[in-house]
Amino acid sequence: MISLKNIGIFITALFAALLPLKLLGQHQDDSKGLKDYYKSYFPVGVAVTPRQLQDSAQRLLILKHFNSLTAENAMKMEPIHPEEHRYDWSGADAIVNFAVENGMRVRGHTLCWHNQAPKWMFYDQAGKLVSKTLLLARLKAHIHAVVGRYKGKIYAWDVVNEAVSDDPEQLLRNSLWYQICGEDFIAKAFEYAHEADPKAILFYNDYNTEHPGKRTRIFQLLKKLVDSGVPVQAIGLQGHWSVKDPSQELLKTSIEQYASLGLKVQVTELDVSIYTDNKMPAPQPDGTASGFTPMQEERQLEQYAKLFQVFREQKSSLTGITFWNLSDRHSWLDNFPVRGRKNYPLLFDINLEPKKAYWKVISF
What we know:
The termini are far apart. The longest helix has 25 residues, at 4-28. This protein has helices at residues 4-28, 34-37, 50-54, 56-65, 77-80, 90-101, 132-149, 176-181, 184-196, 212-227, 248-259, 294-313, 356-361; strands at 44-48, 68-71, 105-113, 156-161, 201-206, 234-237, 240-242, 264-273, 318-323. An eight-stranded parallel barrel has the order 1-2-3-4-5-6-8-9, surrounded by five helices. By secondary structure, it is an alpha/beta fold. The radius of gyration is 23 Å and the shape is globular.
């Protein structure tokens, strides 16, 4: 015979089990998105592809949660300028037009980078490296064409990307830009961009910006540019982080140090890898791929919560946060740096549904 006491215990346990589902349902009915929760803090953006804008489900997710767009690849030098006398505007135009039609901001990415730069930029018809004069002329023509086309539609540009070396013994990366032009290509790129659109906010953009050694070198470069009157106005912290790094202390210190130069600061390429090494995850006991485990989910939730706590505390210096890709359905971290490894670094899962980390990020 079941006692009234046991019935009471059962009802209490059932209510406790159903309460999270009830609360989750309330969240699912919420019409607000990330951009709305952070309206009084900073714009929230996302890197997209033209194809995503043609997919109704992904398009709706973008419109609900974000008020700023960045082209993941369509504005990089090689895709947009594959031959010296030919530009391919199709992808970039699609993204900019979508943003304008929907009242969204656009960040331009990127004008000068050692990667995804077409070979013709650095070589003559005989296959020899071009002169400094010719390379700078080509860079100027490229920047004037691209920035000029979107003048008044793109409010900020990542002008120079990843020019600082990872080698603690060197300031600048030994790229073809540096080999041919020395460090002058950096200042010139900013000058050309400012000429093409004097109102655009011009960024230096890099990764590992919070690591003390590289942070020191990046700060050294930026201070030299600022002191020389080069029109660099902001720094982009790429934010390709993990469930382990960076700490709140390192991130806070970095933002404050860069802001001390009078620069605007943005996190331009945010994701949180569930991995902390360059190894394939161990398979489950049944031999299947490990996927996104509860432990990884919890660690990711905690890291996103810590990061956004710092972001909110630093809102006087931060002028934008941009996620690098929309959902776990597609991430540049899939197959990188480990081929065959699937990553789950974003706030929305492969079905475009919000993850636990999302609810944590908006609960403050």
